[in-house]
Fold these 2 entries.
Entry 1:
Amino acid sequence: MEIRHIALLLGLSTLGLSTLALPALASEHTWTPPESDCGTLLLDLGARSDDAFRFGTLAGQSEGSGGFGLLDLLLCRLTAPKQSNYWRLQAQDLGGPQPQTELSFGRAGRWRIETGGGRISSGRSTVTTPMRTVSDGSQGLPAAWVPGTTTSAMRELLPSLVPVQIERERERARLAGSVVLGPLWQIDARYRQEHTRGRQPFGGAVGSTGGNVRAIVLALPIDQRTRNADLGLVHAGPRLQVRAGLLLSNYDNAIDSYRWQNPFAGVGGWASAANSPALMQAQPSPDNRFQQISLSAGNSLSPSLRLNGDVAFGQMRQSQAFLPYTKVPALLAALSVPLPRPDLDGRIDTRLLALKLAARPDGPWQWDARFRFDDRDNRTPSSVYRYIGGDSTLQDTGADSSRLRINLSPSFRQRDLALAAGYRPSRAFGIDVELSDIDISRTGSARSNSDEQRLGLKLKHRPSDALDLGLRAARAQRDGSTYLGSRDFIDSHSPEYIATVPGGFENLPGLRQYHLADRQRSELGAFAQWRPKALTALGLNYSLLHDDYRMSEFGLTDSRIRSLQLDLSQGFGEAIWLHAYAGREWLNADQAGRAFLGGPNRPIQSVDPARNWFVSHRDSVDSLGLGLAYRTAGSPLTLRFDLSRSDAQGAIDVLTGSALSSAPLPDTRARLTRADLGFDYSVRSGLQLGLHYRLERFDSADYAFDGTAPNTLANVILLGDESPDYRAQAWWLRVVYRFE
Amino acid sequence: MQSAEAEFETCSSCHTGERIDFLKPSSHPLVDGRMRCSDCHAPHGSSTPAALNAPTLNETCYACHAELRGPFLWEHPPAREDCANCHRPHGSSHAALLTQRTPFLCQQCHLAQFHPSTALSGTGLSGSTLPSGSTSLMGRDCMNCHAQVHGSNHPSGVGATR
């Protein structure tokens, strides 16, 4: 085996259709050297605009113009050619916000070790908050803070605002290896660690008495690690292939609690001890772990019959110590009923069995039979909790209290059966039919059993070497056991409390949650690929997914997603390639509800059709891409231009019954345009110079954020974040040096 | 083995719908080469319907989003059952890869008395006189208060507020 082939992990040595398939991709900073470029150094030096990028390799930099430098390096060598020993080192984007490195070495056909890592950034956005991070990690208000029942009384709110950056940054490291034990056996092992840091928005609710909830949206730190280890033993015989695996996964959150000072005070129904500046407390995601053993096997029972099977047993555990019911000392001291247990001792046992029998006999017929069993048995203990609403009230110990709650531990079991048959009398024609049945059982759910049958059909036809046609259609029907919408409400409260609730329901009885509801699904798809000339290819794709929830009085009642795409690839000689695509997606959905209040209004309003409302969502996404490349053998010049545009528009129509009032909502929009333009020129053998430009334009309109400030709402202090509107640009000089 | 970009180009040359999803404003960063199709999918097949690497969709998601794995004291059952109940894994025109804009997505399953069942429309927008506007419509809408939508482990986190 030619070792340089191993080193050629980047693989795009020629410009063909596939390399042009995605405008706006290949001109990322990452580059794909030809086979001979095992020793390559690439340096980008450039400048960028005030606005920061939120996508691509430059995302994660702070706002503000300035210079930047990125370094790529690829080295690979045979250390002992006759023994096939090798090593390979690749680094990308060193000096940038998202560097990546990879090192691999080994002996071809015997063993291999890979290690590497990198950083991924979500991009940064700036928000404002009156909160400051205190030395103990909590979020504190400025000393001069003036609390109030609403934001209008907080006269220090706007003067005290400070900027904070929202960002999620993942640092990844991995180590993997494999050893060939013999002609048929191999061991492989992988370890991956991910450290996520940054800040995220978090709605910090305060109080929850009788609709008097107050909240402040906080920008809270993230500091968490996930470690995954996977060990496998592989047997690859001529007829039997087996992999036995062990997966260990551990999640560790360095932040055990979120604490913040209450900015509100004097709200009716609150205990006085909860008023500002009392500390509130929430719990971020708790530490957890997951283990799984698995066995996957495939066996050729005969030359035309093959059996594949997977079996896996896993367990999710979580036992982080509970935080107290409340952080407010006076409320904590007044507790009369303690926590029922020190931690959850959460446990979910997972079991999977999947079997597939596939027949490919000589002749035009083929068939498959599949069985799948996915069981998630939640063995987490249920207990009675008497919670404190929003750190703001004394504990209510009455048997008929709404604050007596029992945690439910939902379990899930899914069984799939499928039979498929295909008829392919020639390479020019094929038809496939599949019949499947999905049966789901749940606990603690409004629907303990649901069942869905689906019939699908696929047709493929090649009338000529230049034309491929395809059609697919499917129909599925889902129903199930009697829908008991109040089951989880009843199961999680005391009977004494339920007896006090008129009608005994929480959600409207006519509501059908869409993932449980009766559903009639229709799918349709069609495609055509036409290659009228050697250097020309045209593609057309259409798809429809329609979900009809006609049995749902309230909730999602209809969903219809359609898309149409056109693709063009055109070569102009061997040197110039053009690829373009355009598409539109329509996403329509309808939902219904009925507005009702509590107390004496509840029995009347909950059955009053004049209080019905209907929402129609009419969203669309227009996509456009264009890629143009010039490159020819022997020419020192390469050119590239890539453009992509995604334009998402949303329209919401709200209709209400005569007892309600409504007003139009503004349309929403999110439009992202990305463009890359550049050329490279070989000034001599081994040395290439280039000039590149990048644009990222994002403009959007969102009524929920635009024009808002932390004091916009009366009961919630917002972060004052706007929907994105920026134009980030960068240009850079590129030097590529290749050496032996 | 291909580079991440080349792998994406190879896959998306046929999976054109996914290509468009990944170019949407809310999407996983495959276009940028920071993720690979093969991070989630087994290109040569697996026992899952979408040829996923892990036995289930949720376990695939938990590989990178282990903070959502739990188990939690107060579970959100649709999230425990199937992440795709609320999220489109490749890309969406709505924030956080959601299938629908909030708060309307939440109201497709939650229609209780008072604010969950309120008819939310332009009457809830903020006006020129402050403060004004609906807490359930503006800003992070439901998540202004119900931040722990994937589940809470706080003993007082019943309503996903802790």
Note: Residues 236 and 481 of chain A are 45 Å apart (CA to CA).
Entry 2:
Amino acid sequence: MQSLAKLLEAALFAASRPLTLEELESLAPSEGDVSTALDEIRQNYQEDHGVELVEIAEGWQFLTRREYAETIERAQFALRPRRLSPAALETLAIIAYRQPVGRLEVDEIRGVDSGAVMDKLVERGLIEVVTRGEGLGRPLLYGTTPPFLEILGLKDLEDLPRLEELSVALRRPTPVDEPE
Amino acid sequence: MTSPSMREQAGPGFVVELEKFSGPLDLLLHLIHEDEVDITDLPIAKIADQFLSVIADLGLNQAADYLEMAARLLRIKAQMLLPRRLGDDEWEDPRAELVRRLLEYQQIRELVDWLGHAADVRAERFGRGYEAPPPDAPPAPLQIDLNDLLAAAERVITLIPQPMLHRVVPRPLDVEGATARIHALLAERETFGWSEAIGPQATLVDVLSTFIALLELAKRSALTLSQPEPFGPMVITRAIPREAA
């Protein structure tokens, strides 16, 4: 590997979170093209390694390969994060697609009070107040955070499925073979 | 054989069953799926009846969100029964708003499946030094210097609304009366005990008034207070008129 690739590899190894392109570029401002170097590392780790370089949460991170999940977990070297409840996922879905969005709109779409769920999500750092609305009382408006992308393994918000791709309407179940 | 006892162990159905549906829309969708009916042409009477019977069964008829939906369904059901003239262009389907919300919610449910799957896949890969997020993220350690703290304190103090300072609860303490009583006792006797100072059948207010009066008089060197033994009764002694060195 070229020297820049080695430097980036070291930084990514040392970091316990995804490093953004800007962060990686700041390591060696004049050493060459970081994207090319990242590609080199990724290809290097494509085979013969238990970890791989993954593009995630608007950054890059070394992650273990999926096939070792169970073994690692059984040995308790690392713990899987707690699963999000359906209520939390519903709330996240609404916020991810409607952001910036206020509490009232989330309540309205879910048909239940979502205050407690949203507080929990703020606490876990998955959503945050991004701005205030124009309406009565200038309500707080929420958006998703980089940790949200991280726990879902998404590169960025563009990675979310497009709404048009969903089989929106719930109709009389007719067997439809979805084209692959 | 075991199922009845297991059901009892599961406790009251209320909490358990609440988790089954994340809200009234979820329950409605479940019923619609089960009946395999067309969501855009909801058989509202049937669905409303089912909804009511399910929430009664699950003990959800106490939960406001479910009750609100039940009321909404009954209103739509009633509106559907109103006669309408043939070819009435003004007629609006009373179900339209509910159908729109259901479709929207249905979309959210699909996203929930997608997000849940994405999170599961992501959870199978570990990063370096990865730790599950703590149940309660501890607040970041404070790093401030004294001047910042003082400036912040000043800001907070100036923000305290003035009227608050005047909201004083009237205290019916009678310190003056207690002082007079102690003076009378002092004139009679050189030394006396706490119980004599507060007098018989003292109320809490009497005790407090007497205590404050004693402290005040002790400050003015009119008397001295002593306690011969730990937790023993307090002894009040007339102060010697000349200055105690």
Note: The two ends of chain B are 90 Å apart (CA to CA).
